[in-house]
Amino acid sequence: QLQLVESGGGLVQPGGSLRLSCTASGRALDYYTMGWFRQAPGKGREGVSCINLDGSSIMYAESVRGRFTISRDNARNTMYLQMNNLKPEDAAVYFCATDAYTHCSVRAGMAPADYEYWGQGTQVSVSS
Questions:
Q1: How far is residue 66's CA from residue 64's CA, in Å, rounded to a whole number?
Q2: Lower Cβ count inside 10 Å, N or C end of the chain?
Q3: What is the end-to-end Cα distance of the chain in Å, rounded?
Q4: 75 exposure class (CB count in 10 Å sphere: 0-12, 13-18, 19+)
């Protein structure tokens, strides 16, 4: 059974940075698309960024483009999200997700229903 565990969340001041990690166990992720989603209180889960199996296709939500960077290390079965210049509106629970059949592209979008496996989430708080 594939399991995902996020880490790296925390409290940061506006303008600060955090690096989230998502480590998988139980299965190699070499052939899986991976993505980051977030959910703020009272809001739906939204796609933040995704990356295909070899990193050749990456997508960002408009709200984070230029500030967040997604990457993956298949040898370590781990995906990362470097978040810079954080804003209060970035505060949310961040989830990593993966799926063997979905694609990472602007055309495909990032629908939560397209991802089969999910982590438990890590809280990101942005406040002065």
A1: 6
A2: N
A3: 40
A4: exposed
CA-to-CA distance for 35 and 24, rounded, in angstroms?
13
Buried b (16+ CB within 10 A) or exposed e, 54-74: eeeeebbbeebeeebebebeb
Residues 13, 128 contacting (CB under 8 angstroms): yes
Distance CA 106, CA 29 (A): 22
Rounded CA separation 56/23 (Å): 20
Q: Each residue of 8-59: pLDDT tens digit?
A: 999 999 999 999 999 999 988 888 999 999 999 999 999 999 999 989 999 9
